[in-house]
Design brief:
The protein has about 400 residues and is α+β, with helices and mostly antiparallel strands. It folds into three domains: about 10-95, Sandwich (Jelly Rolls); about 135-285, Jelly Rolls, CATH 2.60.120; about 310-405, Winged helix-like DNA-binding domain superfamily/Winged helix DNA-binding domain (Arc Repressor Mutant, subunit A, Orthogonal Bundle), CATH 1.10.10. It contains 13 helices and 19 strands. Strands 1-8-3-6 form a four-stranded antiparallel beta sheet. Strand 12 and strand 13 form a beta hairpin.
């Protein structure tokens, strides 16, 4: 049995600042015991669900603490407040001693990730996230055109399973029969009590649009997470051993928001809803890992949302490079660094067309400290990326103040 958890109580006077946006090295988060706290951001990209005023039982600072990144918001006491301070290393014990608090954090994080991800999809991909199960047919059609028959076969099968009377059901059956000879070993169905699963390379684990009731923990191999938008595959992440994915559908009972494909043969542990609730209290290290993962996603999506507000596309590219450096915790005094992506992926990140992006990237290359080596972006001076980003952010702030001033004066 876990021992008693020693948590500190901290009092703040009305109007005091508790955490400040941009401040690094967050080592603790707070649960409000008494009083009210207001959260604010330097730039409010989208209005967050739940509002910005928090009261007893609410928590803040978890994103920065669990992801070990800089704070993404400022917290100020509206009244005199009493807060419970939780150090990062105490989180595992908090889970064991107080499962409902851990579940509240995870569920709120999951909703926040989905909400922010939908906002980012609208802003960068100029598209709304598909959550209709009939989208399975579009996914299958896309992979058929790319001659990726394993993925296509899986998506057609799921479309027929969930839309047996759908408008494209007969066509899906015909296309499945047509590509059946081209597929390699495809595993579609597992028994509900098969928790340890092996997926051969290029097998689809799940498709966006289909219902989901399990999350997965990668034990060996890697998994590609992608989304089909406007007949293009947008690569979201490549996950490795120890990573967790598929938690959003498990926690919220909503359709899958992206596709998961075995990037190489992978061994996964599947966790269903009943097992997950049991795991929260018996395996705090996995729940702690999941919280950290969700916290990192929220931090990253928020940074990407702020990126969309920089009007100058060259500035957006510098900012996107800096976000990747921060995400991967690369020290700015590193002399040279090669990013794990090239110009095309950078253009996708900043949400502009490839034709416009090629021209913008040429402007970026005018800076001799940035090069393309073996189709990857390479920098010979990371401190310069930081300086350039700060310059463009500052210019955007000045321009935003000017626009707001003009708008007020015209009233």
């Amino acid at each position: 049995m876990p021992g008693p958890l020693q948590l500190a109580f901290i009092n703040y006077k009305k109007d005091s600042y508790i955490i400040v946006e941009g401040k690094p090295n967050a080592d603790r988060f707070f649960i409000i015991r008494q009083g009210k706290v207001r959260l604010s951001k330097d730039v409010e990209v989208v209005q967050e669900e739940g509002g910005s005023v928090l009261g007893p039982g609410d928590f803040f600072g978890v994103v920065s603490t669990m992801s070990s990144h800089s704070h993404i918001e400022t917290a100020q006491a509206i009244t005199d407040v009493t807060l419970i301070s939780v150090m990062k290393e105490q989180y595992g014990q908090l889970i064991q001693n107080n499962t409902p608090v851990a579940m509240k954090i995870i569920l709120q994080f999951s909703k926040r990730v989905r909400y922010l991800d939908e906002a980012l999809t609208r802003l960068t991909l100029k598209n709304t996230a598909e959550e209709d199960v009939s989208h399975l047919y579009n996914v299958a059609e896309y992979y058929t055109r790319q001659n990726q028959y394993n993925q296509a076969y899986y998506a057609f099968n799921q479309y027929i399973k969930y839309c047996p009377q759908g408008g494209n059901a007969n066509k899906a059956r015909q296309l499945m029969a047509k590509i059946a000879g081209y597929i390699k070993s495809v595993k579609i169905e597992f028994k509900s009590d098969e928790f340890n699963r092996v997926y051969p390379k290029d097998n689809m684990i799940f498709s966006e649009g289909e219902p989901g009731e399990e999350l997965f923990i990668i034990q060996k191999g890697s998994v590609k997470i992608a989304k089909i938008v406007d007949n293009n595959e947008v690569l979201l992440a490549v996950l490795k051993a120890g990573d967790i994915f598929g938690e959003m559908s498990l926690l919220e009972s909503k359709p899958r928001a992206a596709c998961a494909v075995a990037y190489e043969e992978c061994h996964l542990m599947a966790v269903n809803r009943a097992n997950f609730e049991r795991m929260v209290s018996t395996q705090p290290q996995i729940v702690s890992r999941l919280t950290t993962l969700l916290a990192e996603r929220i931090w990253f999506i928020y940074k990407q949302l702020v990126n969309t507000l920089i009007h100058d596309p060259v500035g957006r590219m510098y900012d996107a490079l800096l976000i990747q450096l921060e995400k991967n915790r690369v020290p700015f005094n590193t002399s040279t660094y090669t990013f794990d992506f090239g110009p095309r992926e950078l253009v996708n990140m900043v949400g502009i067309t490839q034709s416009e992006g090629s021209l913008v990237f040429q402007k970026l290359l005018a800076n001799k400290r940035i090069q393309v080596v073996n189709e990857k972006i390479h920098s010979t001076d990371l401190s310069d990326i930081f300086k350039q980003t700060e310059y463009y952010r500052k210019m955007e702030k000045i321009e935003r103040s000017r626009r707001e001033g003009t708008a007020i004066s015209s009233l």
